[in-house]
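Quick log. Single chain, no ligands specified.
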Amino acid sequence: MFTKHHIQEALDAYLSLNPQQKDQFIGLFRLLSSYRDLASRKEFQGHVTCSIVVLDSLAKNVLLAKHKFLRRWLFPGGHLEEHDESIVAGGLRELQEETALCSSVLKRPRVWPIGIPFMIERHKIPANPDKGEPAHVHWDFRYIFQLKEDVMLKRSDELTDLRFMPLSAAPEYSKHKIFNLLKPSCSNKAAKQLEDAIVPYILSSRDCRPLGLDGRIRVQYFVDFFAMSHDEDKREFLVKLLSDSIRSKCRIADYNGIACPKDGNVLLAYALAKKLGKPLLYIRSSVLFGKWIEGGLPSGKKLLLVDDVAADGELMLESINNARRSGYVIDRVFTLVRRTEGDADSLLSHIKVDIESIKVYGDIELRDCCKQPCLSQ
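-> predicted structure:
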């Protein structure tokens, strides 16, 4: 059953990433502290609605719907209902009713944390005499998704038109926020800093060498993050990049600890956990004294899995499965780098785990980065 708690939880999550906007929601805070039912469309002092921003599979266009009554292009969505389990669940229900798009064809774009509205907007709704509704205010919680692949749309009778349009056609304030979210990673300051820092640590070989847990990926260029992590200054630099990435993409308070594969970069993970003020657990690839996990945090806790590189994703998958069989929860992975030769992203998506990486590269990018000939090793 939908309650005010769901609204407060979503608002708190949004403000944890946008604390500078708190003063904009004084009116909503006031309504939350009252007896009013903010999920009811009959609450004309103001109530909560949900819109779903859907990007196409290439993140080049956005889905817009033209409503009969308002005669404006808006994001699909609408009012909440008592049986909705959350705000976003209500928005996804409305999306399916209006467009026939179900949640199974959507994924979370990397640009925004899952489960947190990417924006909340207050807007005025004109009176609707046909429904006996006076002018009132909507507090619209907007969540952003992306199509896994392009699919057919089916317009409901509530709409006069439905189509994917260029991002520039989105409502003004939303348009600028979407543009900012979708800035190419190559312009990302952290990615550029990492690219510059790794150059002295790029190793190369004339022959392709195995990379990853099962060795099916073969590469000529490799970054020795383990050696980099032994240098105190470099390790501190890597930890700052990774901790900044984590703080910008999720609520660290939602996680009880940091986890790392025992065969991963434990130096980096230890320093990162210390900086974030979280306990560190090591996940073994085999049982030792009846345990998969080394660390003092009891089972049932939620963990962030971290490492330096994701290649084929097999080590990540193994670690997550071993942690889950021990009773821990893992839904996010953060790495410095993800190799293009592997398919870690796809592999982890099958077990409903998101992976975030500061930089994505492969042999071609590393070769261009170091601008040096391959050396026999």
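Residues 232-249 form the longest helix (18 residues).
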